[in-house]
Amino acid sequence: MAHRIAFLGFVALAVCASLSLAAEPASLQDFCVADASGNTLMNGMACKNPAMVQASDFAFSGLHIPGNTSDAMGFRVTLVSMTQIPGLNTLGICLHQVDYAPWGIVPLHTHPRAIEILTVIEGSLEVGFVTSNPGNRHITKILKKGDVFVFPVGQNPGVITIANTVFGSKPDISTDLLAKAFQVDKSAVWQLQAKF
């Protein structure tokens, strides 16, 4: 009798566990256009009533306008997210245009929750990333018009110590680029690279 109760308890536990782990990976609705006037926040904004959705909720105009690249880094990002296209709400995706002045750079950064796909529309651009510790491999390429490059989301779940990654990558990240990114003299970059 004790074995039968234990067995039934195990079956009940297994059924409960399978029910609690069940999930639907697909969206449960066609779309969730952001309702800027809504008060409920979730993974984005509250959803607009689907009967009120318009084509304009899925469109944006303005990427044909060049960004002002006269700042110290020589770049400008034009972000297109759910604020600009309410139809992107809850999709976990956005788009941006980056304009560069000659020799302009985007500050060194990571994307812990997103993959970035970059396409060069005009000119050429040196791009790259550094893998996580202990390798710290600097993977870089010069892209030309029409080329595409993928930046993986945060690489693997290992530790990425910034100093080792930036100043100890193999091959080295360009001294010119690091000096401009950190707004320091090249000699400071050489000193740091020598330590790693």
TrEMBL record:
Domain Cupin type-1: 61-190
Pfam families (UniProt xref): Cupin_1
SS bonds (residue pairs): C32-C47
GO cellular component, one term: apoplast
Residues where oxalate binds: H111, E116
InterPro entries: Cupin_1, Germin, Germin_Mn-BS, RmlC-like_jellyroll, RmlC_Cupin_sf
Top-level taxon of the source organism: Eukaryota
GO terms of molecular function: manganese ion binding
TM annotation in the entry: none
Keywords attached to this entry: Apoplast, Disulfide bond, Glycoprotein, Manganese, Metal-binding, Secreted, Signal
Predominant location: secreted
Position of the signal peptide: 1-22
Compartment annotation: Secreted, Extracellular space, Apoplast
Residues binding Mn(2+), per UniProt: H109, H111, E116
Similarity annotation: Belongs to the germin family.
Entry protein name: Germin-like protein
